Backbone:
């Protein structure tokens, strides 16, 4: 295999976009990831219970953004 111009660690959406843009410019790119599938958090998997498939990012967003159930509620009716 010829040597790569760039090695990208991780296979999330940003890594895939970077690899695509570099590839368009004729660069040789290798993506190295720890999982058996690409996509990072942009994929589906059985997370909560067997047989229930969810978007991975949808189940982790609250924890990564500090979301709590005590978020402010609207103070007036939107109508």
Residues:
């Amino acid at each position: 295999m010829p040597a790569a111009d760039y090695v990208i660690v991780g296979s999330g959406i940003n890594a895939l976009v970077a690899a695509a843009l570099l590839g368009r410019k004729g660069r040789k790119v290798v993506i190295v990831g720890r999982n058996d599938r690409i996509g990072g958090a942009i994929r589906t998997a059985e997370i909560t219970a067997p047989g229930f498939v969810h978007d991975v990012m949808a189940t982790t967003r609250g924890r990564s953004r500090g979301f709590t159930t005590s978020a402010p509620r609207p103070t007036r009716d939107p109508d």
